[in-house]
Write a structure and sequence with these properties.
Length: 164
């Protein structure tokens, strides 16, 4: 039997052109709940030097909507001063950004990726939502974020129904 690394899907993320219009659609048309916003850290320029996201330092960057207990959609605010008004670090278009998977153990998952020859794009770090995370790309270049929740993770703290 294979060792299962993935616990579930945390979220799928999209860059949006107009946050108010997107929130209206997802909340008022689809009936999802806005759970929390993630602020862009003041020190974002140290993390992503030269990236347009630095213009949003200290401002909201992501809106998190709950689909079901433990399942979310992230909407990235438009980036100022970019041709496509893209949101999120390292993203260049409106639409799909990345898939995020919740794992049982972030360190074991990272080690398994390395053993399989998968390039790790970032080292394990604690994100602004208090989750441990790292990034890879699948064979077609699609970005995948691996997350391990903590007791202080926004996805746990702000979840309207307790996560298992």
């Amino acid at each position: 039997m294979r060792n299962k690394l993935v616990k579930g899907i945390s979220h799928i993320a999209f860059n949006v052109a107009d946050m108010e219009r997107s929130i209206d659609f997802y909340c008022n048309v689809l009936g999802l709940d806005k759970i929390f916003e993630i602020m862009i850290p003041e020190n974002i320029a140290e993390i992503f030097p030269g990236n347009p996201i630095t213009a949003l330092a200290g401002k909201p960057g992501i809106v998190c909507l709950q689909v079901a207990p433990g399942e979310f959609i992230e909407l990235f605010y438009p980036m100022p001063d970019t041709d496509l008004h893209s949101g999120g670090p390292n993203y260049t278009r409106i639409g799909y950004v990345h898939l995020s998977l919740v794992v049982y153990d972030i360190h074991d998952t990272s080690e398994v990726m390395r053993k399989h020859g998968v390039t790790i794009d970032t080292e394990i770090s604690k994100g602004p939502d208090n989750t441990f995370q790292f990034w890879i790309k699948d064979p077609d270049g699609n970005r995948i974020e691996f997350m391990q929740y903590t007791d202080q993770s926004y996805q746990v703290v702000y979840d309207k129904a307790s996560l298992p």
